[in-house]
Amino acid sequence: MSTVSQLSQTEELPFYEPQGDEVELFMHAYEHKLPVLIKGPTGCGKTRFISYMADKLGLPLYTVACHDDLSASDLVGRHLIGDGATVWSDGPLTRAVREGGICYLDEVVEARKDTTVVIHPLTDDRRILPIDRTGETLHAPDNFMLVVSYNPGYQNLLKGMKPSTRQRFLSMSFDYLLPEAEVEVLLNETSIEKAMAERLVVLANTLRELKDQDLEEGASTRLLVYTATLISTGFDPVKACRAGMIEPLSDDPDTVIGLMELVQAAFGSSEQE
């Protein structure tokens, strides 16, 4: 699945809370035509950051959600048959190289390893994309940038980025925001009250401490925003936490019960029970 987005001239930049010098680093990488790799846990702001930078630079953003069945043709393109003729249709990577823009491969390690080979010529000084099926060799324009991301916590022997591929990119690591910054995100993304936002962030950080013990992944900033949205519209806080933060973290009934005890300790019993 791929999407293309670009900010109109009348729209404001999306809200983004910097974690460090990532904005400056990204700008330097773009100016010097360097590819970027972003590492970090699920829902910590990687995709929001890329969207923010594309809008800041005034570039179209071609986002590809990588998965097990993603083929090289899904990225580069394929011949289609229609109206009695065969027509070549560019994939998102090819469109970005032809027209300029940021091509963002989200969770790149989910793609088949033979698929990621097609990006290699774009990550060195050649910056080319050979298209065997059309006989073309596209040279990336100055306003093309390749960005990939993945979650190191999901790596295993079968799914991981080869060192030879990692070393083709500048790399930056993302993590969950500091509490005060995460509160600011909730205040900007929802209409929740500050005191409630602070309680949610404390709860989220408590849940994150359980990662690798009872949970495979900590509560993401994205889940915090979902939960804050429910609460800000009048939904019961305890039930909002269950739907927005607890149930997405585990399918194990006993684990859910244990996590809900943390919620109830933070917010009390549900008013609607």
Automatic annotation (TrEMBL):
SUPFAM superfamilies: P-loop containing nucleoside triphosphate hydrolases (SSF52540). The keyword Iron does not apply. Keywords: ATP-binding, Nucleotide-binding. Residues 182-265 form the CbbQ/NirQ/NorQ C-terminal domain. The keyword Ligase does not apply. It comes from the Bacteria. GO terms for molecular function: ATP binding; ATP hydrolysis activity. Gene3D superfamilies: P-loop containing nucleotide triphosphate hydrolases. Residues 35-169 form the ATPase dynein-related AAA domain. Belongs to the CbbQ/NirQ/NorQ/GpvN family. PANTHER family: DENITRIFICATION REGULATORY PROTEIN NIRQ, MOXR FAMILY PROTEIN. This is CbbQ/NirQ/NorQ/GpvN family protein. It comes from Amphritea balenae.
